[in-house]
């Protein structure tokens, strides 16, 4: 890679970081990451409650909440990956 190509690449990166769209994507990704962390903590909490629960009815409700939370978090992780890809290729 020649010096001119390196300089062009650096300029492109600087423009990307200064772009308002890039900053919005970055902020969106950060908030999603925080939400996903909270969902992971909730998943762990539900899992521990489920393991300690003796009542089958309550255990079934906890299992359902755990399954929904897991699916939502999984979908969120996929969306976050897409956002990171868009940021990378912007």
Nearest-angstrom radius of gyration? 21 Å
Mean pLDDT over the full residue set: 89
Whole-number count of domains: 1
**How does the major sheet shape up?**
none
Number of strands: 0
What's the order of the H and E elements? HHH
Percentage of residues in strands: under 5%
Helix content: over 70%
Q: Which spans have pLDDT < 50 for at least 5 consecutive residues?
A: none
Morphology? rod-shaped
CA-to-CA gap between the ends? 21 Å
Q: Structural class of the secondary elements?
A: mainly alpha
Task: Please report the number of helical segments.
Answer: 3
Describe the structure using short key phrases.
single chain, 90 residues, mainly alpha, 3 helices, 92% helix, rod-shaped
How would you characterize this protein structure?
- The chain has 3 helices and no strands.
- Helix 2 packs antiparallel against helix 3.
- Helices cover 92% and strands 0% of the residues.
- It has one domain.
What would you say about this model in short?
With 90 residues, the protein is mostly helical. The protein has helices spanning 3-18, 20-52, 56-89.
């Amino acid at each position: 890679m020649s010096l001119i190509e390196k300089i062009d690449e650096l300029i492109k990166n600087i423009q990307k970081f200064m772009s308002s769209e890039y900053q919005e994507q970055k902020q969106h990704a950060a908030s999603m990451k925080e939400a996903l962390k909270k969902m992971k903590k909730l998943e762990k909490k539900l899992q521990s409650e489920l393991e300690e629960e003796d009542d089958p009815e309550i255990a079934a409700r906890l299992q359902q909440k755990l399954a929904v939370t897991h699916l939502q978090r999984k979908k969120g992780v996929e969306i976050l990956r897409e956002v990171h890809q868009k940021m990378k290729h912007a």
